[in-house]
């Protein structure tokens, strides 16, 4: 695996180019002594089911995985809890107001963005929404649809963590 900070060449504190690998997740400046750690970013995934037990899927409108399938969710903003981030993403991507039913589990993921690998921890939540019929594709979603996960080809799901999460939830 490539070092997660391989493309960061200069110390963010003093600007020195003597910013070297310290261990497998950090770099250290040999001039000022600053250590910078690459920690996982928080992200959320909403598992939303309708009255028939189908899951709400999204077709991605942007890279990574443009045109592939996903579940509503995304990165948690600064000063936001996991739950707040999950419900904000549900609102942005579906137009629906939601409620967290329960936290299911979390999985590590790597999200390629702008030439970098962003390491994430994806927290999966069971979410209920107010209205299953009045949804619209917003933010980075091309379209939304309800489907039985048994009829979704895992190869059509963009993110590895979503594939693993659906397998875990539905015991495939």
Describe this entry's structure for a reader.
With 172 residues, this protein is mainly beta. It is built from 2 helices and 10 strands. The strands form 3 sheets. It has a 4-stranded mixed β-sheet, with helices on both faces. It has a 3-stranded antiparallel β-sheet with strand order 1-2-3, with no helix packed on it. A 3-stranded antiparallel β-sheet has the order 6-5-10, with no helix packed on it.
Topology:
Elements: E1 19-23, E2 26-29, E3 35-37, E4 41-48, E5 55-60, E6 69-70, E7 73-75, H1 82-94, E8 98-113, E9 116-129, E10 141-147, H2 160-170
Parallel strand pairs: 4-9
Antiparallel strand pairs: 1-2, 2-3, 4-7, 5-6, 5-10, 8-9
Structural class by SSE content: mainly beta
CATH architecture of the largest domain: Alpha-Beta Complex
- Termini Cα gap: 29 Å
Main beta-sheet strand count, sense and barrel state:
4 strands, mixed
The first-level CATH class of the largest domain is given as: Alpha Beta
The average pLDDT value, as a whole number, equals 94
Please give the share of residues in helix.
Answer: 10-25%
Which consecutive residue ranges, at least 5 long each, have pLDDT under 50?
none
At CATH level 3, the topology of the largest domain is: Nucleoside Triphosphate Pyrophosphohydrolase
Query: From the alpha-carbon coordinates, what is the Rg to the nearest angstrom?
Result: 18 Å
Number of helices: 2
């Amino acid at each position: 695996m490539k070092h997660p900070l391989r493309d960061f060449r200069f110390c963010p504190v003093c600007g020195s180019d003597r910013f070297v690998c310290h261990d497998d997740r950090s770099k250290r400046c040999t001039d000022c002594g600053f250590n910078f750690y690459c920690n996982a970013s928080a992200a959320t995934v909403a598992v939303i089911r309708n009255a028939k037990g189908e899951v709400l899927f999204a077709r991605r409108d942007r890279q990574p995985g443009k045109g592939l399938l996903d579940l509503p969710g995304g990165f948690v903003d600064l000063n936001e809890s996991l739950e707040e981030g999950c419900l904000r993403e549900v609102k942005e991507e579906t137009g629906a107001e939601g409620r967290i039913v329960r936290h299911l589990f979390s999985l590590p993921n790597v999200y390629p963005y702008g030439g970098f690998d962003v390491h994430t921890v994806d927290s999966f939540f069971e979410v209920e929404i107010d209205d299953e019929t009045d949804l619209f594709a917003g933010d980075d979603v091309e379209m939304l649809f309800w489907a039985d996960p048994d009829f979704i080809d895992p190869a059509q799901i963009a993110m590895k963590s979503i594939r693993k999460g659906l397998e875990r939830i539905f015991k495939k």
